[in-house]
Design brief:
By secondary structure, the protein is an alpha+beta fold. It is about 45% helix and about 30% strand.
Length: about 130
């Protein structure tokens, strides 16, 4: 391997060590409702994000809180010597995508049927140090 390629690979490896992520697939909440809560914690320090999610009065907040705890645990397993309090860990990226839809029929007047779409979503949460976020 050439020296330039090796230096680039080592830089990418060091950059990837600063971040950790967690994914939540097929969460039975509509993406719009989940994005309302996700926008509250985007770019916020991890401790503050946990307290925001704990006291947010929405169903999606509990699921995001559990996902954030998972991402923090992943970050701690990557950086074994580092302390969470000293490292300025923030939520660098949170992405909510639409998942699959369950399509159901509801009875309607005069023999018709109205379609109900039960939506789900996929959430990707990335945490990293404040230096990696900039």
């Amino acid at each position: 391997m050439g020296s330039r390629k090796k230096n680039m690979a080592e830089a990418m490896k060091a950059e990837r060590k600063q971040i950790a992520f967690a994914k939540l697939n097929n969460c039975p909440t509509s993406p719009r409702k989940m994005r309302l809560v996700a926008d509250l914690i985007r770019g916020v320090d991890v401790d503050r994000a946990l307290s925001i999610l704990k006291f947010t009065n929405k169903d999606a907040a509990g699921r995001l809180e559990k996902l954030l705890l998972s991402a923090i645990a992943n970050w701690q397993s990557k950086n074994e010597g580092a302390r969470l309090e000293d490292s300025n860990v923030v939520v660098t990226e949170i992405k909510v995508d639409g998942g699959r839809q369950l399509k159901r029929l509801r009875p309607a007047p005069q023999g018709r049927g109205y379609r109900i779409r039960k939506r789900s979503n996929h959430v990707t949460l990335v945490v990293g140090t404040k230096v990696a976020a900039n």
